[in-house]
Amino acid sequence: MDTSTTIILKRTNNYNPDFLSLIKLLDADLALRDGDLSPIYFKHNQLQPLDTVVLAYIGNTPVGCGCFKAFNASSVEMKRMFVKPGERGKGIATIILKELETWAAEQGYGKAVLETGVKNTEAVALYQKKGYTIIDNYGPYINMPTSICFSKSL
Questions:
Q1: What residues have CB less than 8 Å from 104, skipping those under 6 apart?
Q2: Where are the domains of the chain?
Q3: For residue 20, what are the contacts with CB-CB under 8 A and spacing of at least 6?
Q4: 0.85 exceeded by pTM
Q5: Beta strand 61-70 with 75-83: parallel, antiparallel or unpaired?
Q6: Sign (positive/negative) of CA torsion 139, 143, 144, 147?
Q7: Does domain 7-153 have CATH number 3.40.630.30?
Q8: How large is the C-alpha radius of gyration of the chain?
Q9: Across the chain, how many H-helices and E-strands are there?
Q10: pLDDT tens digits for range 86-131
């Protein structure tokens, strides 16, 4: 792989300016997909201080991100997965997801859960391809028919 397409990962926190800029793009993308439901979902995507963020770079340019937070004593919840539209189809989301899973396992977690929207078809396909199975909606997503929840053993 030449250096113009080499993916470099960085473990960081949610105060990282590159993460914050990617999250703005993610929120704009989700607002377009979710339309009138966007404000409902937005309130579930607010993160408190978090030291488990993964950023993906091509060169010095941030192109994708993801993070996780404790869900319970043995599980994490994957959050804020995003790859810039112009960089999709290069396997970046898969690389980020794998790094998040590895990091969570290193911290002693044995399971990951996550939620995505039914209109986020690329994410649904990615999670299913990577071994996540659909579960009953949990927590704030229980009565949200536009949400799909997944889990995977790490």
A1: 52, 68, 76, 112, 154
A2: 7-153
A3: 14
A4: yes
A5: antiparallel
A6: positive
A7: yes
A8: 15
A9: 4, 7
A10: 999 999 999 999 999 999 999 999 999 999 988 889 999 999 999 9
Q: What is the DSSP string of 73-100?
A: SSEEEEEEEEE-GGGTTSSHHHHHHHHH
Q: Tell which residue, 29, 38, 106, has the closest CA to residue 65.
A: 29
- Lay out the sheet containing 111-117: strands in order across: 7-12, 53-58, 61-70, 75-83, 111-117, 147-153, 133-135
Q: 């399971």: which residue's tokens? A: 111
Length of the chain: 154
Residue the block writes with tokens 């659909």: 134
Distance CA(76)–CA(150), nearest Å, equals 12
